[in-house]
Amino acid sequence: MIDTLKYCLSGRSIESPLMSTTPFPSAADERALRRLLLLLATIAGVAVANIYYNQPLLDSLRGSFPQSASWVGAVPAVTQLGYAAGMLLLAPLGDRFDRRLLILLQIAGLSIALIVTAAAPNLTTMIGASLAIGVLATIAQQAVPFAAELAPPSQRGHAVGTVMSGLLLGILLARTAAGLVAEYFGWRTVFAASLVALLALAVVIWIRLPKSKPTSTLPYGKLLMSMWHLIVEHPGLREASVTGACLFAAFSIFWSVLALLLAGAPFHLGPQAAGLFGIVGAGGALAAPIAGKSADRRGPRAVISLSIVLVAISFVVFGLSGASIAGLIVGVIILDVGVQAAQISNQSRIYALSPEARSRVNTVYMVTYFIGGAAGSAVGAFVWPWFGWMGVSVAGLAFTALAGWSHARRRTRPVTAS
User: Fold this and answer.
1) What CATH number has the domain bearing residue 364?
2) Number of domains in the chain
3) For residues 418 and 234, is the Cβ–Cβ distance under 8 A?
4) Domain that holds residue 299
5) Is the peptide bond before 266 cis (omega within 30 degrees of 0)?
6) What is the DSSP string of 56-94?
7) How confident is the model over 246-294, as pLDDT tens digits?
């Protein structure tokens, strides 16, 4: 294991695809692993942030493209659909090729998409570029399976939680950064700044990120087809995917409509205020490693059950807080802790199902997850003009109930035994 970590930190190839079978023999090795997990967390956060920059900007986009104002809700929905498509088509390649090379190639494509978005002359162009951003931002989905591969089984939940904390901070603080930048420099500058951050990250990746050794020799077509066999073979993967998708749909309903709620009466607040709610929600990301440790100790199902209850409570709070900033803040904290704890626990258990196919297992889960997110954003865009904030809260509660139903169906059959 010592040699393995030396390879990792020197940037050379990882010789064993199943490093998790060997425990760490010394504290020095554990420190080396922590540094590597921190790098993976940074990659995940910076990459995934790109699909959330547009959420606090919807009111600004409506002002920039008044002739297409009714279609601004399509921007976050299409971005999330693109992310789901990118996971389906690109993320499985992590089992077949060196993840470092894949990440660098995706950064190159993502940089082009960001340039087009920043210069978009109309909403149609922006929607098309947003789809490309979603597809290429799946860089993050190479980092999480890599963390599960590096960690021993007894620490897998904690390792996944550590990298996911970076990913979740990227999701939540993206809204804060976008809101602040848009408030003072305009929404186009948000995407230009993201381009600069990505290029800086590419330099760090080139120098520090280790190469990974493929675990599969399947051709691309068969690699994609093998995911269907994983779905059929593992009922637990199906259950975890549906549960996660429903919770993320509820999560996306709130965040995709929040900027519109704050822009109207009685708040009359701009994108900066919507973005600042991301700082409040960052508590959920900071709780991710704790959730991972709890899943290691107590089992993931108990954590997920509690998470579903927390998300349901958050939407009750939201429904009662349509005119209260304090109520919205309380609801955001509960929502983010609940959704992120469930996400960590779900991913921790699915990675144990098929160690040689972690990228593909992750792809099945995350494609379903982001289809749920896109559905949530689309439902939010439909419900908001017709039923207002109370309708959004009821829709979020309905998705949470679906998550509870999916989870309860397999309460007597552990996922890891699937």
Assistant:
1) 1.20.1250.20
2) 1
3) yes
4) 2-417
5) yes
6) GGHHHHHHH-GGGGGGTTHHHHHHHHHHHHHHHHTGGGG
7) 999 999 999 888 888 888 888 888 776 776 777 776 666 666 566 656 6
